[in-house]
Amino acid sequence: MSEYKKLHPISAIINFFKGIREAIFPLIVIVFLNGNFSGGSPNWFSLGISAVVLIGVLLSGIFRWIRFTYRIEEGELRIEYGLIFKKKRYIPIDRIQSLNFSEGIFHRPFELVKVSVETAGGSGGKQKAEAELTAIKRSEADELEAVIFQEKQGHKREPDRTENGQERELVFEMKMKDLLIMAITSGGAGVVLSGVGVFFSQIMDSLPLGMIYEQVKGWLQFGVLVIASAVFSVLLIAYGAAIIMTIFRYANFSVFLDQDDVIITRGLLEKRQMTIPKNRIQGLRIDENLIRQPLGFASLTLISAGGSVKTEAEQQLKLFPLINRRELSKALGRILPDYQIDAHLKRPPRRSLRRYILRKSWLTWILAIAAAVLFWPFGVMALVVPVFFTVLGWLSYLGTGFSLVEKQLTIRNRVFSLRTYVMKKYRIQSAETAQSLFQKHAELKSVRVVMKSGAGGAQAECLYLERTDCDSVMEWYRPDQTQA
């Protein structure tokens, strides 16, 4: 692929819409500040400026497409681009970790994909792909991937898959029923539940208020009910939109195995394909939120090193967005058999319980008591909040624990969701313990470990363990002296 290659012409249109998106707020400001909407005649000056901006953005998109070229040469992916000044970016093949493909509404009619080039170091520390090929033919993307693999491995390799990935080993997929359960039990459900609480609390509030303010009873009740109904309706609409967006995002979710790569495909409107080399996986995180845990469902996220994807959320890729907890071990065993997720955890001692409860609830107790005093008698309802956090502290104590099994460390804790981190010793970047004066008196310690994840790191901590247990974790983490 040493010859120069260009992007598909649809790239000019995509660049145009990207430019419009970036210039949309200045355009709105120009139109509204200079418009004459009440006078009945348009402001030709503001419309003229808007037209010039649109034409400029369109021409910019066209010239960016014309000047963009890429090729593989001398062990590098060489990209040349630039609107006014010619820029060159040479990416050594050895640094390329993976190519991620995605298909938007502009790509599908022409069988095109957007290719994001992921490297170990990212793009100068910025959380974005090292390079992007906005739109190329799917066949060219597969050829590019095969050539890069060939260069990295030093031997010839034929593309081993069809366009739809039929020759890869399918190890996991989600049905529509799973998508619906995932969408309904996501964090958006909490928003709606809180909205329901606001709705009924406002109704209950309106009754005693009417007894106090007899002169404005009817008006007050009507006003409160209207506001509560409006808030509830907005939350309900937002929840419905969140469900639809979740289904669109995770539709056709599948996980494939391709030699040493894990390949995740998903999306309805925009199809995305993410390739994660197994050697980039730093650990696992299992999440069970307060709604899914009683139902027996969980999600599993890969904590991946390097790369330079756009957000931290994408850096930690969901391998199983929703799976029955009883099936998790078997499903994971097909992909990463080295990880054991059903280890028996050692919990903090009984004397740690009050520390977990105080840590979660002390601030809410102070605020709620203050509210109860200042807004007596209705302020008493605020005590519901610290009671909730007290229960949450108790649940945190019950859920926390750790396990050491040969070269694997498992740590589980709870903020709101129950989170279980599973990591190998050689993937841990650092480990430390902490002990306050009060903990020292109680013979307690906390341990925290860090795994590499994107530009930062993923932390896992276990609070208020027996001091000897924390010391055993640090002893386990020390380099093996026999190997030295």
Description:
The structure is a single chain. 43% of the residues lie in helices and 28% in strands. The chain has helices spanning 10-34, 44-67, 138-153, 176-184, 188-212, 217-250, 292-295, 312-315, 325-335, 353-374, 384-399, 437-441, 467-477, and strands spanning 5-6, 69-73, 76-81, 87-92, 96-103, 112-119, 131-137, 169-173, 254-258, 261-266, 271-277, 281-288, 297-304, 316-324, 401-405, 408-414, 418-424, 428-434, 444-453, 456-466. The strands form 4 sheets. A 7-stranded antiparallel sheet has the order 7-6-5-11-10-9-8. Strands 14-13-12-17-16-15 form a 6-stranded antiparallel sheet. It starts with a strand and ends in a 7-residue tail after the last helix. Residues 155-160 and 308-314 have low confidence and may be disordered.
Could you write a compact summary of the structure shown?
With 484 residues, this protein is α+β, with helices and mostly antiparallel strands. The protein has 13 helices and 20 strands. A hairpin with a 2-residue loop joins strand 15 and strand 16.
Features:
484 residues; alpha+beta; seven-stranded antiparallel β-sheet; six-stranded antiparallel β-sheet; 13 helices; globular; transmembrane helix; YdbS-like_PH
Distance between the termini: 45 Å
Please tell me what the overall shape is: globular
Strand arrangement across the biggest beta sheet = 7-6-5-11-10-9-8
Total number of helices: 13
Profile the largest sheet.
7 strands, antiparallel
Strand tally, please?
A: 20
Supply Rg: 28 Å
Indicate the proportion of strand residues: 25-35%
Organism: Halobacillus salinarum
Pfam families: bPH_2
InterPro entries: UCP026631, YdbS-like_PH
Protein name: PH domain-containing protein
